[in-house]
Every structure is written in structure tokens, then in C-alpha cells.
Amino acid sequence: MRSRSVYPAILGSVCLISGLTLGVTYSLMQERIAEQERQVLEMALRAALTEAEEFETVGYVAKDGQGNYHVVESMEEFERDRAEKGYVAATEVRGGLKGGETVGYVLEGAERGYSSLIRVAVGVDVEVSKVIAIKVISQQETPGLGARVNEMQTSDTLWSVLLGRRSVKSGPSAPWFQANFSGVSTEKLLGLGTLKGQDINGDSKPDAITGATISSNAVLRAVQSAILQAQVFHKSEGVDASTSATAKWPAEKDAATQPGTTEEGAIDSGET
């Protein structure tokens, strides 16, 4: 009888040890994942605003259920007023500093592409008059199509790679699609409904990725969303918090081009 009573105790001990081991492993993995995400974000910030030597949080922009953007001073204020004012999301505004002076801002925009959420870091100048650069933070689009938003331009061929004679491409280090946004005025970008057939940077080359219009336009909408939020924050500087600036996507524009929406049939249809 004594030997039988030992089995439950052994089984319980094994379960307890297994549970503790899994808990510790999960905690360690979460810390590692958080650190990796922090590093990815840091790289994105520096890519979006290369002139900056360091970054600091200078404010937040909240979005309500009607598509309006509002400046809030802190995440505590966002959470406190969330139910009353109908806030659904908040974006951190990071100021890029060089020699102690603000040289621009970086905000994140996110839009649904063909098969994933595309997150984009957007760097703008202090007047929010032009985009300095953008950096896709994360995406899981179709390989060979939408995933080309991260494609680097190269003149390598299969033979040059096999023979170890890879070329060194001079020019922008950013993926060619993302480089199209650099130096473009925010006014021009906000006026676009699609990238298809557009040449926003004047290089006489199409800006949309061939066969991936949905993913291309998702990046555009993410950039537009970040620009709108940057404009709201810029207008609010020096204004009392009780009269903070707000903005909404222009009502006269087609709803299909608004940040926070996707093209009709974008999920069910293939990339076009």
C-alpha cells in the first residue's frame, strides 16, 4: 500500500518541476523577444531619421473610433480618457536630436496589406513638410510579391553569386521601394490614393511593386497615417493641452484610401 501512495507524489513532483521549468523558460524567452523587438525598433528609428544622434519621447497621438487624431501628453492620459473619448489606439512621437536640437520626428504607421499587418517607421522634418525616410519594421507579405517592400536593389546575377563576384551597389542603402519616399513632400503623399502608375520622387520609374499593388498601397497608407499624426502633434506644440489640435482624414477622399482601411477584396483576392 505504501508503494502505491508514492506514485501520486512522484507524478505531482514531476508536474510541478515541469511547470516551473516551462514558466522560467517562457519568462526568459519573453525577455529575449522584447530585447529583439527593441533592437529592431532602434534600427528602424535610425534608418528613418539618419541625422539624429539620439531619440526621446516627446508626446503621443491618440486615434478615436471616428478616425480623428488627438494629442495626449502621456499614456496615462490616453488610458484615463479612453472610454470617455473613444480612443482606440495611441502612437508614440519620438523626437530625433542632434547636438541637443530637434532635427525631426519619427512616428509609426501600420496598415493591413495582402496577408499581414505592415508596420512602418516614418521620419519627417521638424516642420512636417517632407519625409526624410521610411523603414518597414515588420511584414509577412507574400514572398516574391508583397515581401519585396524590403528588397534591396542589386545588379547581381546567379552566375556572379555562384562565382563569388557579387557587386557592391552604390547609392541608397534602403530597399529601393522604401527609398522612393525619401525627400517627398508630405502634402504630395497625402494627396495620393494609390501608388500604381505614380512617380512620386521624379526618377521616371514606377513606384508600386509590380504584382503587389495591395502591399504597395498599404505602405502608402501607413506613411499617410504617420504624416497626419505628425501634423497634429506639430500643430499642438506651444498650445494648451485643453485645446490640443486634432485632424481627420479628408472626407472628400475615397474611403478605400483612408488609413485604417484596405482595398476592396484585398484579403480574398490575389496581389495585383
Textual characterization of the structure:
- The structure is a single chain.
- This protein is an alpha+beta fold.
- It has one domain.
- It has six helices and seven strands.
- It has a seven-stranded antiparallel beta sheet with strand order 6-5-4-3-1-2-7, with helices on both faces.
- β1 and β2 (68-72) form a beta hairpin.
- The radius of gyration is 23 Å and the shape is globular.
| Total domain units | 1
Strand percent estimate: 15-25%
Tally of contiguous helical segments: 6
What class would the helix/strand composition place it in?
alpha+beta
- Largest beta sheet: strand ordering: 6-5-4-3-1-2-7
Keywords:
272 residues, 6 helices, 35% helix
Chain-wise SSE layout:
Blueprint: H1 2-48, E1 54-64, E2 68-72, H2 75-85, E3 87-98, E4 101-112, E5 117-124, E6 131-138, H3 158-162, H4 176-179, H5 186-190, H6 213-236, E7 246-248
Antiparallel strand pairs: 1-2, 1-3, 2-7, 3-4, 4-5, 5-6
Summarize the structure.
The protein has 272 residues and is α+β, with helices and mostly antiparallel strands.
